[in-house]
Amino acid sequence: MNRGFELASRAMYLLATVVLFLFALVFVGVAALAVVDGVVALDASAATSALLDGVGLIVLAIAVFEIAKYLYEEEIARDRELRNADEARRTLTKFLTTIIIAASLEGLVLVFEARTSDMSAMVYPALLLLVIVCMVLGLAGFQWISRRAESINPTQGDA
User: Fold this and answer.
1) Cα–Cα distance list, 70 to 10, 40, 48 (Å)
2) Looking at the whole model, is its pTM more than 0.85?
3) 74 with 93, same domain?
4) N or C: which end of the chain has fewer CB within 10 A?
5) Lowest mean pLDDT among 10-14, 64-68, 94-98
6) Domain carrying residue 88
7) Residues 21 and 96 in one domain
8) For 108-122, what is each residue's pLDDT tens digit?
9) Maximum distance among all alpha carbons in the chain?
10) How many whole angstroms from its chain centre is CA 7?
11) From the centroid of its chain, how far is CA 75?
């Protein structure tokens, strides 16, 4: 029974990984089409908007691809059980760093888009960048606390 559940679980993660990978490819294709359409319009404003939209879609594609890669590496290619706290910290740090980078790039794209409109359009990008700062601080706090916990109890998590 346990073996059947494990196979079904791996199959579900594999399906999710493949679908996310395909979504990432679609985002890149849509970004390329949007940029071509904007540049063909021969309008500087339309081209700039299309380029910014394209960058945003590619950033989204990278984030989706990284999630697919994370699922593959952590749930399919190796054992699901993390062997110790250091390994769990490294895995979580790698995953959150990818999300932080993608969100940061999206925040910058939104700032560039908002600069062409009125100042009230800067509220959302500013809030997004503030959330990103909070994510970085939270990740730093997690790292500090988990390393400190390991130094107090170095055998924690070892099996």
Assistant:
1) 13, 37, 33
2) no
3) no
4) N
5) 94-98
6) 83-159
7) no
8) 878 877 877 777 888
9) 64
10) 27
11) 17
